[in-house]
Amino acid sequence: MLNIHDLERRWKIYKIKSFLPYIVIGISLIIILPLAYYFYPDSKKSMPQKKQIIQKKKVQVTDIPKKAKVDIMEPKVIIAQKKSVTPQPAVQTQKLQPSMNFMKNIQHQASQPQYVKKPTVKKPKKIAKQKVAQEVIQDITPEITPVKKEPKVAITIERKETQNDIFEIIKRFKKNNNPALSLFVAKKYYELGNYEQSYNYALITNQINSNIEASWIIFARSLAKLHKKDKAIHTLQAYIKVSHSSNAEILLNEITSGKFK
Amino acid sequence: MDSIFANSKNVFLDTVNAKDYIQLDRVSTIYKSLKGSMTKPLKMILLFGKPGTGKSMFLTKLYNDLYQENNIYLYQTPIVDENEFYKTLAQDIFNIKYNDTLNFTQFMKIVKDRAIEEVPIVLLDEAQLYSEILMEKIRLLSDTRCIKFVITLHKTEKEDLIAKEHFQTRIWETFELENASNTELKIYIQKKLMKANCFDTANMFSTKTVNKIYKLTNGNYRDTNKLLYTLFDIYDTYEQNSHIYPMNTTHIPNKFVEMAAIHTGLINA
Asked: Which among B177, B200, B227 is the end of a domain?
């Protein structure tokens, strides 16, 4: 007679042994799956971050040309913004188109200071002495601070190298009296070698806004080119006193040392 | 009256009985060939195979089929002692009884002097148990053509002895017995049970169950007999123990097969 109970017990042990690999695999899966689930979202999170980084990179890549454009197209605006001390209102972007009507009007305008070959300009003379110079500057640009009150307008200027383009800008300047335009015209005339006109427009710019460094520098450069080095030196010295402009100092050194040509 | 399980259990008792011989196609073909070889003037016939492939059953069946018409002698148990071997053969074949020792030379003289018209057939089972010297002398005896030997061997290193050239030339016919296939095993089990009128239990062996048994026994007849004996013993035990386990005669649960395999040592649990 078989010992059936013992045989059943042995059979149960055998079944447990035979299922042991499956049990071990099952338990391993039970342990591994939650761990995998736990770590999987992290990997998922990291993936979008990578995507974001890629997107950012893309944005940067696409933005760079825009910034470059801005830098090229608005050199004056950046300078104007640097000068502004108080927080500025929202900058309005205005794209200017050259207006040639201004040229006709400006020639007949009596109120605008004109360069006379004889150096009869009193205000630069007064600048020679520091106290006087300050007064002159005040006379020329009586509203140093009020300029801040003026709404700053960011201007996008499309460069056009022809003389007609300058006339167009002068026309627009006549309409809105924007110092950025007059400064641009002054620079253009300076580049073209028309130092008399560059002197005139720099002077106009200074009258409108006496805080524009570039305008003072063009003004001084034009004077120097017109063989009025003393006046240029005095003007720069007076401006440096007020603004402590490093560019003005460099130009002053160049003029005084005779390096400026 | 015994239960069907007790009767079925007894069917698979490990006995060598010609009546229990089951006709299977492949085995029948081999048997017919072997039987046909008996009529040929062959010196020695070799029947070999792994243990439990039915070699002993073959010899028994052959003896039972031929003993009435032929001068045939079956020795299921090897006569290891050489003197006893010659004396037994002298008494059985030539009806000469020796009380003293009978050596090979003396026996050879008897064989040649009393040559029988009808060549006696000697069936030696488990010939691998004979010594190498005795096997060499059996070879020499077969060379006289006065005695025909049919020997069965396990497929072991003894084969090397048989493979020796001087011995191989004397073996004219070789038959190899192999384990049963799945299909053969199913037929074997069912035929065996039906032969004993155990139709209910024969129907319990589905292909799935037979495959399971085949997996455990690898088609070996002896292992299968042993396993099925234990299987029905388990059934019988459950039946006697007031139906501890719900008995089902439609199929055999794997549990019972595995339990039987554990008990017989086919599964090491």
From this structure: B177
For residue B65, the enclosing domain spans 25-177
pLDDT in tens, A148-205: 555 555 665 555 556 778 888 888 888 888 888 899 999 889 988 889 999 999 999 9
Task: Spell out the per-residue pLDDT of chain B, length 269, in tens.
Answer: 567 888 899 899 877 777 778 888 888 898 888 888 888 777 788 888 888 888 888 889 999 998 888 889 999 999 989 999 999 999 999 888 888 888 899 998 888 888 777 889 999 998 888 888 898 889 888 888 888 899 888 876 555 555 555 556 666 678 888 899 999 999 999 999 998 898 989 999 999 999 999 999 999 999 999 999 999 999 888 888 765 455 667 789 999 999 999 999 999 87
Provide the shortest C-alpha distance from residue A20 to chain B (in Å): 13
Q: Do B97 and B228 lie in a common domain? A: no
CA distances from A130 to A228, B51, B91 (A): 18, 130, 159
Q: Position of tokens 């007031």? A: B242
CA separation for the pair B160, B154 (Å, rounded): 11
Copy the structure tokens of residue B171: 């073996």
Cβ of B262 within 8 Å of Cβ of A2? The answer is no
CA angle, B59 then B64 then B70, to 5°? 95
Cβ pair B173, B137 in contact under 8 A: no
**With an 8 Å Cβ cutoff, is B267 touching chain A?**
yes
In CATH terms, A89-257 corresponds, of 3.40.50.300, 3.40.50.620, 3.40.50.150, 1.25.40.10, to 1.25.40.10
Chain A residues in contact with B233 (beta carbon < 8 A): 2
Residues forming a β-bridge with B176: B48
Query: Which residues of chain A does B269 touch, with a Cβ-Cβ cutoff of 8 Å?
Result: 10-11, 13-14, 17
